[in-house]
Amino acid sequence: MRRHGIALVISAPSGAGKTTLIGRLREEFPHFGYSISCTTRAPRDGERDGADYHFLTRARFEELRESGHFAEWAEVHGNLYGTPLAPVREMLRQGQDVLFDIDVQGARQLKQSLGEAVFVFILPPSLAELERRLRGRGLDSEETIARRLRNARAELREAAWYDYLVVNDDVDTAHDHLRAAYVAATLRPLCRPDLLRALEQGALDAAAV
Amino acid sequence: MRRHGIALVISAPSGAGKTTLIGRLREEFPHFGYSISCTTRAPRDGERDGADYHFLTRARFEELRESGHFAEWAEVHGNLYGTPLAPVREMLRQGQDVLFDIDVQGARQLKQSLGEAVFVFILPPSLAELERRLRGRGLDSEETIARRLRNARAELREAAWYDYLVVNDDVDTAHDHLRAAYVAATLRPLCRPDLLRALEQGALDAAAV
């Protein structure tokens, strides 16, 4: 199969079940590529430069950012993080799919920088259920839960521009839907330049499937 | 689930396995709606007007055609056949999915008349394999097989404008792909006006999933 790679971009409010769903998708499709991010934060014990992250000074990060080096970037707790664009483009060109687990701000940047990416938003069935799940995890303080719910409300307003909405009520159904969004993306003609070329030439036999 | 209906349009050259694949899709999703076609051919034994077809005179058919009554129409062996547009639009509005098993000429007309339909083209893995399958069925004369292969070559050139290409090499994989194209279509925001409204209002709880 000589198709073009898919950039699959997945966002969800905290507590919607994104991590579980991405895990299940990766179980069936372990071939998704990773890109190594750049960051200005200090390496933690055992982290290696160029493997876990590219560790950069803030000045260098900003220089790269200004030159359009990043597919997306963000500042989190005073540190800068960014995804270099060129390696992602190269993976896609080579037919390697790349998965982005990213918030709505990052996704909006990827929409600009990547063009043909597929955007999936995972929603909880309701805000009441989201709150129930956040409490049920027992991880967060009341204050954190209140903040997560405020953030969720804001993020949900962005869902409308995503390509696909996956409501995570029943996790098996949500998995089936996320999987369908990804599989369908692989069937788009623009992902199969080899097949299109063969069809144009009336020589389907030339196309390895 | 109060979503908008999906118009799923499926084309394939003869021998690509379309009938089998549509049968398997309908097994899991028996809810697809049918529209009753109009035709100028004479009713056969047991066929009832308004149930099997709307049987029309040629003059009446042409009058309706000129008035934009049909989502698509064609002349086959001297008889006219057409799909009335209004009942399809009404089914879609009511959230009923509608499946069209139709040739590329009909699909091209549906692209104009239905707007948001989803177009899937089923391809054989190669023309050599298509020929092998046509012979294997033992249904067609050499002349018919040659004609079907010529038609297939012409039809395959149209595949590039379809939304999804499903290569039917292994039937289970092809079924999974056709199914994914359909399921993904149901996840598009434009199919979920209820959900979009709830998201805009920041009131996800109002959306029945």
Automatic annotation (TrEMBL), chains A, B:
GO terms for cellular component: cytosol. Keywords: ATP-binding, Cytoplasm, Kinase, Nucleotide-binding, Transferase. Residues 5-183 form the Guanylate kinase-like domain. It is found in: Cytoplasm. One of its GO terms (molecular function) is ATP binding. ATP binds at A12, P13, S14, G15, A16, G17, K18, T19. The keyword Kinase applies. PROSITE patterns: GUANYLATE_KINASE_1, GUANYLATE_KINASE_2. Its EC number is 2.7.4.8. Transmembrane segments: none annotated. It catalyses: GMP + ATP = GDP + ADP. Belongs to the guanylate kinase family. NCBIfam families: guanyl_kin. Essential for recycling GMP and indirectly, cGMP. This is Guanylate kinase. It comes from Candidatus Desulfovibrio intestinavium.
